[in-house]
Fold:
Amino acid sequence: MKVVILAGGFGTRISEESAVRPKPMVEIGGMPVLWHIMKIYAAHDLNDFVVSAGYKSHMLKEWFASYYLHRSDVTFDLAENAMTTHETTVEPWRVTVVDTGDATMTGGRIKRVADHIGGETFCLTYGDTLSDVDVVELVRFHREQGVLCTVTAVQPPGRFGALALGHGSPLVGGFHEKPAGDGGWVNGGFFVCEPGVLDYIEEDVTIWEREPMERLAADGQLAAYRHSGFWHPLDTLRDRMVLEQRWESGDAPWRAW
Structure:
């Protein structure tokens, strides 16, 4: 099963980082968040990736072009212009990077990589979100529903601490650090799709999260897999700091490898 990763946006809300690199290349623990996402899928034996790139796509291509070299011990025979590889820690990944255009919307980016997906079920997610979702269970759930698409539904954590205020009293009764959100379920990415979803996407300007998903829902072809575990996007510089701190502390729930 192939994994399509949407990695072409500008990342305007984390412009401190995305001004010099694509947002999926922003690093957590010294490695791009894109690498972390791929490791999540690889931990569930999914190793064939299609990266739908756009903004600064050349940086993604250059990173993958150098990845094998950087993770291997090598001998360079300069006289013969040859290189011999010894030990390597590279993963058994197959990665297709497709430049889908700077201004293409999420639906258009999916449509543009259709030739690399084939006629089989595929996974789809964003290149800026980490989770401890059980991908094997997600795929099993999707197949049980018999629909064209399954979206992972999550309840995002609150971003601010909450004050416990007593009725009729000006005193603060307590403080709750980052309570859960308002109870609503939102699109958390980590989709499982059938090739038929491509028929719901018309052109480059189509936004996947709007017309295609709305039409899939109206047709009874969109299921929701509820995930109550860890889920965290990389939208802002603060998000990066939170994820970096969790990685450095050894408390990184998305680390399934």
